[in-house]
Amino acid sequence: MYLLGLGLVLLALKFFGISSIAAWDWWLVVLPFALAVLWWAWADWSGYTEKKAMEREGRRRDERIESNRKAMGTSKKR
């Protein structure tokens, strides 16, 4: 996501002729978009995206269970 944001900023600076980025070649401005596509392709291929989603769901589940235990007055025993 950072690469996409960087690409958008560079694209805007190049398009509006702001700063020294206006003198850069277009391939340097478009490079963050290509890197973002490569990152997303790798993340999907390697299972990184699914792993992070499962970790998020696990944390939410554990928080929900703990809040229900507190609401019932039974907390985890130490």
SSE series: HHH
Rounded mean pLDDT score = 92
Portion in beta strands: under 5%
Based on CA atoms alone, the radius of gyration comes out at 22 Å
Number of helical elements = 3
Output the structural class. Answer: mainly alpha
Number of strands: 0
> In angstroms, what separates the terminal alpha carbons?
41 Å
Summarize the biggest pleated sheet.
Answer: none
The helicity comes to over 70%
Poorly predicted regions are none
Provide the domain count.
1
What form results from the Cα inertia axes?
A: elongated
Features:
78 residues; 78% helix; mainly alpha; elongated
Architecture overview:
This protein has helices spanning 2-16, 26-46, 48-72. With 78 residues, the protein is an all-alpha fold. It has one domain (2-69). α1 (2-16) packs antiparallel against α2. The model has no long low-confidence stretch (mean pLDDT 92).
Concise description?
By secondary structure, this protein is mainly α.
What is the fold's blueprint, element by element?
Layout: H1 2-16, H2 26-46, H3 48-72
